[in-house]
Amino acid sequence: MLIIHFLLGFIGSFVGTIPLGPINLSVVRVTLKHSMKAAIQVIIAAAMVELIYSFISLHCTMAILEELNHHPNISYYIGLVFIVIGIILFFKREKTDLETKDRTNNYFKQGFFIALLNPQAIPFWIIVIGFYDMQQWLHLENDQKLLCMMIFVFGALFGKGCSLYIYSLISHILRERLSVVSKYMSRITGVVLVLIGASQFIPDFI
User: Fold this and answer.
1) 94 Ramachandran zone, left/alpha/beta (phi>0; psi -120 to 50)
2) pTM of the complete model
3) How many CB atoms lie within 10 A of CB 17?
4) Residue 38, SS3?
5) Taking the chain, what is the end-to-end CA distance rounded to the nearest angstrom?
6) What is the pLDDT of residues 65-79, one digit of tens each?
7) What is the C-alpha to C-alpha distance for residues 10 and 8, in angstroms, rounded to an integer?
Protein backbone atom coordinates (compact mmCIF):
# COMPACT_ATOMS: atom_id res chain seq x y z
CA MET A 1 0.00 0.00 0.00
CA LEU A 2 2.82 2.40 0.84
CA ILE A 3 4.54 1.68 -2.48
CA ILE A 4 1.28 2.36 -4.33
CA HIS A 5 0.85 5.72 -2.62
CA PHE A 6 4.45 6.64 -3.41
CA LEU A 7 3.95 5.75 -7.08
CA LEU A 8 0.69 7.71 -7.25
CA GLY A 9 2.41 10.81 -5.92
CA PHE A 10 5.43 10.26 -8.17
CA ILE A 11 3.43 9.74 -11.37
CA GLY A 12 1.08 12.65 -10.71
CA SER A 13 3.95 15.03 -10.06
CA PHE A 14 6.11 13.71 -12.89
CA VAL A 15 3.38 14.02 -15.54
CA GLY A 16 2.20 17.37 -14.17
CA THR A 17 5.70 18.80 -14.52
CA ILE A 18 6.16 17.82 -18.17
CA PRO A 19 4.23 20.76 -19.73
CA LEU A 20 6.56 23.70 -20.29
CA GLY A 21 6.08 26.39 -17.67
CA PRO A 22 8.01 28.96 -15.60
CA ILE A 23 9.93 26.45 -13.50
CA ASN A 24 10.80 24.29 -16.51
CA LEU A 25 12.08 27.33 -18.39
CA SER A 26 14.09 28.35 -15.33
CA VAL A 27 15.75 24.91 -15.18
CA VAL A 28 16.47 24.99 -18.91
CA ARG A 29 17.84 28.55 -18.77
CA VAL A 30 20.13 27.87 -15.82
CA THR A 31 21.39 24.67 -17.46
CA LEU A 32 22.20 26.42 -20.74
CA LYS A 33 23.71 29.57 -19.26
CA HIS A 34 25.51 28.00 -16.31
CA SER A 35 25.56 24.26 -15.61
CA MET A 36 23.52 21.24 -14.59
CA LYS A 37 24.98 21.59 -11.10
CA ALA A 38 23.40 25.03 -10.81
CA ALA A 39 20.12 23.74 -12.25
CA ILE A 40 19.98 21.02 -9.59
CA GLN A 41 19.61 23.76 -6.95
CA VAL A 42 16.53 25.01 -8.80
CA ILE A 43 15.21 21.45 -9.06
CA ILE A 44 15.61 20.74 -5.33
CA ALA A 45 13.81 23.97 -4.42
CA ALA A 46 10.95 23.28 -6.82
CA ALA A 47 10.59 19.73 -5.50
CA MET A 48 10.30 21.03 -1.92
CA VAL A 49 7.51 23.39 -2.97
CA GLU A 50 5.76 20.50 -4.72
CA LEU A 51 5.82 18.55 -1.45
CA ILE A 52 4.09 21.45 0.31
CA TYR A 53 1.47 21.98 -2.40
CA SER A 54 0.64 18.28 -2.74
CA PHE A 55 0.19 17.94 1.03
CA ILE A 56 -2.15 20.96 1.17
CA SER A 57 -4.11 19.67 -1.83
CA LEU A 58 -4.42 16.21 -0.30
CA HIS A 59 -6.06 17.70 2.79
CA CYS A 60 -8.35 19.95 0.76
CA THR A 61 -9.36 17.23 -1.69
CA MET A 62 -10.26 14.71 0.99
CA ALA A 63 -12.57 17.27 2.60
CA ILE A 64 -14.17 18.14 -0.74
CA LEU A 65 -14.63 14.50 -1.72
CA GLU A 66 -16.46 13.74 1.52
CA GLU A 67 -19.09 16.27 0.42
CA LEU A 68 -19.25 14.94 -3.14
CA ASN A 69 -19.52 11.21 -2.47
CA HIS A 70 -23.28 11.39 -2.98
CA HIS A 71 -22.88 12.83 -6.50
CA PRO A 72 -21.89 9.93 -8.83
CA ASN A 73 -21.83 12.19 -11.90
CA ILE A 74 -18.83 14.09 -10.53
CA SER A 75 -16.55 11.69 -12.45
CA TYR A 76 -17.90 13.12 -15.71
CA TYR A 77 -17.04 16.67 -14.66
CA ILE A 78 -13.51 15.68 -13.68
CA GLY A 79 -13.18 13.80 -16.97
CA LEU A 80 -14.21 16.93 -18.86
CA VAL A 81 -11.63 18.97 -16.94
CA PHE A 82 -8.88 16.52 -17.99
CA ILE A 83 -10.03 16.74 -21.62
CA VAL A 84 -10.08 20.55 -21.59
CA ILE A 85 -6.62 20.77 -19.97
CA GLY A 86 -5.29 18.22 -22.48
CA ILE A 87 -6.66 20.17 -25.45
CA ILE A 88 -5.18 23.42 -24.09
CA LEU A 89 -1.77 21.78 -23.68
CA PHE A 90 -1.93 20.21 -27.15
CA PHE A 91 -2.59 23.53 -28.88
CA LYS A 92 -0.57 25.69 -26.51
CA ARG A 93 2.08 27.77 -28.20
CA GLU A 94 5.33 27.20 -26.35
CA LYS A 95 7.66 30.03 -25.42
CA THR A 96 11.15 29.55 -26.76
CA ASP A 97 12.82 32.64 -25.38
CA LEU A 98 15.40 31.14 -23.05
CA GLU A 99 17.71 34.12 -22.96
CA THR A 100 16.17 35.97 -20.02
CA LYS A 101 18.93 37.18 -17.73
CA ASP A 102 19.19 35.79 -14.24
CA ARG A 103 18.98 38.48 -11.57
CA THR A 104 20.61 36.34 -8.92
CA ASN A 105 23.12 33.56 -8.59
CA ASN A 106 21.17 32.05 -5.70
CA TYR A 107 19.57 29.36 -7.83
CA PHE A 108 17.87 27.62 -4.89
CA LYS A 109 16.07 30.82 -3.88
CA GLN A 110 15.20 31.51 -7.52
CA GLY A 111 13.69 28.06 -8.00
CA PHE A 112 11.81 28.20 -4.71
CA PHE A 113 10.02 31.46 -5.46
CA ILE A 114 9.24 30.60 -9.07
CA ALA A 115 7.68 27.30 -7.97
CA LEU A 116 5.90 28.96 -5.04
CA LEU A 117 4.23 31.49 -7.33
CA ASN A 118 2.85 28.79 -9.64
CA PRO A 119 -0.95 29.26 -9.42
CA GLN A 120 -1.70 25.97 -11.20
CA ALA A 121 -0.15 23.61 -8.65
CA ILE A 122 -2.95 23.23 -6.11
CA PRO A 123 -5.85 23.04 -8.64
CA PHE A 124 -3.86 20.44 -10.57
CA TRP A 125 -3.34 18.31 -7.49
CA ILE A 126 -6.98 18.60 -6.45
CA ILE A 127 -8.03 17.23 -9.85
CA VAL A 128 -5.42 14.44 -9.81
CA ILE A 129 -6.21 13.36 -6.25
CA GLY A 130 -9.92 13.42 -7.09
CA PHE A 131 -9.24 11.13 -10.04
CA TYR A 132 -7.20 8.77 -7.86
CA ASP A 133 -10.00 8.64 -5.32
CA MET A 134 -12.60 7.81 -7.99
CA GLN A 135 -10.45 4.88 -9.08
CA GLN A 136 -10.22 3.82 -5.42
CA TRP A 137 -6.43 3.89 -5.54
CA LEU A 138 -6.06 6.03 -2.41
CA HIS A 139 -6.55 4.43 0.98
CA LEU A 140 -6.59 7.16 3.59
CA GLU A 141 -9.27 5.86 5.93
CA ASN A 142 -7.18 3.36 7.91
CA ASP A 143 -4.78 3.67 10.84
CA GLN A 144 -1.90 4.43 8.47
CA LYS A 145 -3.56 7.54 7.04
CA LEU A 146 -0.82 9.98 8.07
CA LEU A 147 1.95 7.64 6.91
CA CYS A 148 0.24 7.11 3.54
CA MET A 149 -0.14 10.86 3.11
CA MET A 150 3.53 11.46 3.87
CA ILE A 151 4.60 8.69 1.45
CA PHE A 152 2.35 10.23 -1.22
CA VAL A 153 3.83 13.72 -0.89
CA PHE A 154 7.38 12.38 -0.88
CA GLY A 155 6.50 10.56 -4.08
CA ALA A 156 5.37 13.93 -5.46
CA LEU A 157 8.69 15.46 -4.39
CA PHE A 158 10.72 12.81 -6.24
CA GLY A 159 8.43 12.95 -9.26
CA LYS A 160 8.96 16.69 -9.56
CA GLY A 161 12.71 16.33 -9.16
CA CYS A 162 13.02 13.55 -11.73
CA SER A 163 10.90 15.35 -14.33
CA LEU A 164 12.87 18.59 -13.97
CA TYR A 165 16.17 16.71 -14.03
CA ILE A 166 15.18 15.16 -17.35
CA TYR A 167 14.43 18.67 -18.63
CA SER A 168 17.90 19.76 -17.55
CA LEU A 169 19.51 16.70 -19.11
CA ILE A 170 17.65 17.14 -22.40
CA SER A 171 18.53 20.82 -22.57
CA HIS A 172 22.17 19.96 -21.97
CA ILE A 173 22.28 17.30 -24.68
CA LEU A 174 19.90 18.72 -27.29
CA ARG A 175 20.63 22.43 -27.12
CA GLU A 176 19.56 23.46 -30.62
CA ARG A 177 16.57 21.12 -30.70
CA LEU A 178 15.25 22.18 -27.30
CA SER A 179 12.21 24.08 -28.57
CA VAL A 180 11.11 21.12 -30.71
CA VAL A 181 11.54 18.64 -27.84
CA SER A 182 9.56 20.85 -25.46
CA LYS A 183 6.80 21.31 -28.02
CA TYR A 184 6.28 17.60 -28.49
CA MET A 185 6.46 16.86 -24.75
CA SER A 186 3.56 19.23 -24.11
CA ARG A 187 1.52 17.73 -26.95
CA ILE A 188 2.13 14.20 -25.72
CA THR A 189 0.99 15.26 -22.25
CA GLY A 190 -2.11 16.84 -23.76
CA VAL A 191 -3.00 13.61 -25.56
CA VAL A 192 -2.51 11.59 -22.35
CA LEU A 193 -4.80 13.90 -20.37
CA VAL A 194 -7.49 13.75 -23.07
CA LEU A 195 -7.36 9.94 -23.02
CA ILE A 196 -7.61 9.89 -19.22
CA GLY A 197 -10.59 12.24 -19.34
CA ALA A 198 -12.30 10.24 -22.09
CA SER A 199 -11.85 7.05 -20.08
CA GLN A 200 -14.39 8.38 -17.56
CA PHE A 201 -17.12 8.05 -20.19
CA ILE A 202 -16.13 4.62 -21.54
CA PRO A 203 -18.10 2.53 -18.97
CA ASP A 204 -21.36 4.06 -20.23
CA PHE A 205 -20.71 2.69 -23.73
CA ILE A 206 -19.66 -0.83 -22.72
Assistant:
1) beta
2) 0.67
3) 27
4) helix
5) 30
6) 565 555 556 666 666
7) 5
